[in-house]
Design a protein that fits this description.
The structure holds two protein chains of two kinds. By secondary structure, chain A is of the alpha/beta class. Chain A has one domain: Rossmann fold (3-Layer(aba) Sandwich). Chain A is built from nine helices and ten strands. A six-stranded mixed β-sheet of chain A has the order 6-7-8-3-9-10, sandwiched between helices. Chain A has a four-stranded antiparallel β-sheet with strand order 2-1-4-5, with helices on one face. In chain A, a hairpin with a 3-residue loop joins strand 1 and strand 2. Chain A is globular, with a radius of gyration of 18 Å. In chain A, about 45% of the residues are buried. Chain B has a five-stranded mixed β-sheet. Chain B is built from 16 helices and five strands. Chain B has two domains: about 280 residues, no CATH class; about 110 residues. Helices cover about 70% and strands about 5% of the residues of chain B. Chain B is of the alpha/beta class. The longest helix of chain B is centred in the middle third of the chain and has 38 residues. The two termini of chain B are about 40 Å apart. Classes of the chains: A alpha/beta, B alpha/beta. Chains A and B meet through strand 1, helix 2 and helix 3 of A and helix 1, helix 7 and helix 15 of B.
């Protein structure tokens, strides 16, 4: 498998007036491969979103490096952006545009071949079954519909890497299930998917490998089986708690 | 960038609440403007008791010099005998000819000068009194029948021209209203497109497309300029139609003024081009100020707070200073947006004060340089773009300043 994401010694600090300098991401390193779903699992405020934002070139790391599809995020951010599809934890859709308009515009923005755009848009609309609401303003859509539109927008230019920040957060079981199916299908197309979540069950269900993150530090990475063996626990929740507790003991 | 502008503009134009606000704000401003002008005129001219007015009179017939005594009998009137070419436009001018052995007055005054309007009825009374005295003297000397004389009236000539109301409305009031409409719509659009996008997180979506941050900010800026222009032009058309309809329907005097009005005086290529250019420049300058100001806010509410003082300043300055026709000066030239409104006014009035216009251009360039060099870089920083960690302009400047000092050390 091709190594499409290489992250090395990544650090990011923020200044907070109350707490002073806070290390949001502390020396994180991991890799991800084509045809793989890599899950970043951690509680709220663990540093998942900051890591994903740095991968998507929204933020610059204080130190360390990120290479995506052969491009360094600091040196060639535009090439990186061309190679990724990023979906933030919020649906982040323009409220007064329809899914069809949004998908079309993002295909154009991502330099997708102009003559192929109409075919690609129709293909995506059909694939995600959004024909019924393709021409309705997104402000009138349900959260699930918005989330599916958001995924459609993310993959319209057929990027090799997808960065999805809590894509099923706040959705009902049926829509979540649908989204998981899409994500697994995209994996089978050979895409590298970075998927963040604080939902243990979800990560356990769809991720090939998992990175457990807490207080900005990546505490462990591996397949579910690896992590079970490492901790001697079976359920993902117990695995997570054991790893976090042991890390805190070491720090103390 | 074209696609980004298309997305932003479509989203803005479909925002009904924003559109309503853009239409309503100037409507709310119109009565305030009327009040503002009156207040300013009162302050400028001082209170009635302390006002004086100079009357230039010219006895063209070589007679009736004693009219000076009648005029100076009035409190606060300074009567000066002067030739027509020596008379100042700020003074009321009275020429006294002779017709059928009696004085015949030609009066010129400025209807936009409140002192002229305040004193003229008193002057008119004195002139008619003087005419009456002369008439009685003539009757007693020549034995004419008093019934032979018809009542005498004076028709003053207005220095503002025959179609004063229409000219003023079309050449000054409407462009100024359009400028205010541009300011209001650019302020609202800037908040929506910067802090609104941070709040909705659509900013993140924009930042992950293969375009530099500068391009994204410039695309937002262009969108706001276009939105402001559209609003200004629509308001311009709306105001013209509204005012004409209103006048035609309710004000007979103005209706007759419209009837004989030469539309080519105001609706011509020169004035339309100047107006369009002025609206474009205003939209551009206001967008520079508002996109920068609201860019530092991560929520619409904060963005509105950030732009409010600028909106008030930019709206009220033209309102208070431009309408009552203060003389061009370097302070007006230095004030952004106000200088454009003022230049527009001068150009429309065919007053090519090139010193003032050059100063305006110079200060405008300096303003753009200042914003681009010192404020624009902050807008490109991730904290500001993504709207996190309570970023404020002051905090950013402080941190830049301390970084600079640390690097020197």
């Amino acid at each position: 498998m091709e190594e499409t994401i290489k992250i090395k010694d990544l650090c990011k600090e923020f200044y907070d007036p109350q707490r002073g300098t806070v290390k949001a991401v502390d020396n994180i390193s991991f890799s991800a491969y084509g045809g793989e779903i890599f899950g970043l699992l951690g509680p709220n405020g663990a540093g998942k979103t900051t890591t994903l934002r740095m991968m998507a070139t929204l933020m610059q790391p204080n130190s360390g490096s990120i290479e995506i599809a052969g491009f360094d995020t600091s040196e060639k951010p535009e090439d990186v952006r061309r190679s990724i599809g990023y979906m933030s934890s919020n649906t982040a859709l323009y409220p007064r545009l329809s899914p069809r308009e949004i998908i079309t515009y993002f295909a154009e923005l991502n330099d997708y071949s102009a003559q192929d755009i109409p075919i690609r848009v129709e293909q995506i609309i059909k694939y995600f079954a959004i024909e019924d609401y393709a021409d309705t303003y997104t402000e009138k859509l349900s959260t699930g519909m918005k989330q599916i539109t958001s995924i459609a927008r993310t993959i319209i230019h057929d990027p090799p890497v997808l960065i999805l920040d809590e894509p099923s957060s706040g959705l009902d079981v049926i829509v979540s299930q649908k989204i998981h199916t899409y994500i697994k299908d995209l994996r089978s197309q050979g895409k590298t998917i970075i998927f963040s979540s604080h939902n243990m069950g979800e990560v356990e269900k769809i991720c090939d490998r998992i990175g457990i993150i807490n207080n900005g530090r990546l505490l462990a990475t591996g397949t579910i089986q690896n992590l079970r063996e490492l901790t001697g626990e079976f359920y993902m929740e117990d695995v997570f708690i054991r790893i976090v507790n042991e890390s805190e003991k070491k720090t103390a | 960038m074209k696609i980004l502008v298309k997305i932003y503009l479509k989203d803005l134009l479909r925002n009904k609440m924003l559109g309503l606000m853009v239409l309503l704000v100037p409507v709310i401003f119109y009565p305030l403007i009327y009040w503002g002008i009156n207040q300013f005129l009162m302050v400028r001219a001082g209170f009635a008791e302390s006002r004086t007015v100079t009357v230039d009179f010219y006895p063209a017939a070589g007679k009736y010099n004693t009219v000076e005594d009648s005029l100076t009998a009035l409190k606060n009137i300074i009567a000066i005998r002067s030739l027509p070419e020596q008379s100042d436009n700020d003074h009321i001018y009275i020429k006294i000819d002779e017709l059928d052995g009696l004085p015949y007055y030609t009066v010129r005054l400025d209807s936009s000068n409140s002192a002229h309007m305040q004193f003229y009825p008193l002057i008119e009374e004195k002139l008619l009194e003087y005419y009456g005295t002369q008439k009685n003297a003539l009757i007693s000397q020549s034995g004419y029948d008093p019934g032979y004389f018809s009542p005498f009236t004076i028709e003053p000539r207005n220095t503002e021209g025959d179609h004063e109301v229409m000219t003023k409305v079309l050449s000054l009031l409407i462009p100024l209203m359009s400028v205010i409409s541009v300011i209001a719509s650019v302020a609202a659009a800037s908040v929506e497109i910067t802090s609104g996008h941070s709040e909705d997180k659509t900013m993140e979506t924009s930042l992950t497309v293969p375009a530099g941050r500068e391009k994204i900010i410039i695309a937002k800026f262009i969108t706001v300029v276009i939105y402001g222009m559209l609003s200004g032009v629509l308001n311009f058309i709306f105001l013209i139609s509204f005012i004409i309809t209103l006048f035609k329907t309710f004000l007979d005097a103005v209706a007759s003024d419209i009837a004989g009005f030469d539309w080519a005086q105001v609706i011509n290529l020169r004035i339309m081009s100047i107006s369009f250019l002025a609206l474009l420049l205003t939209s551009f300058f206001v967008a520079v100020i508002f996109v920068t100001a609201s860019g530092f806010a991560s929520k619409r509410k904060e963005g509105s707070i950030f732009v409010s003082p600028f909106s008030a300043l930019l709206t009220y300055l033209p309102l208070v200073l431009v309408i009552p026709a203060v003389e061009p000066n370097i302070f007006i030239a230095a004030a952004p947006v106000l200088n454009i409104s003022f230049t527009l006014k001068l150009l429309i009035e065919n007053n090519s004060d090139w010193i003032f216009i050059s100063e305006t251009v110079l200060f405008s360039v300096l303003w753009i340089f200042f914003v681009y060099r010192f404020l624009f870089p902050f807008l490109l920083e991730e904290e500001v773009l993504l709207g996190y960690s309570g970023t404020s302009l002051i905090k950013k400047i402080k941190s830049k300043w301390s970084d600079g000092r640390n690097n020197k050390n």
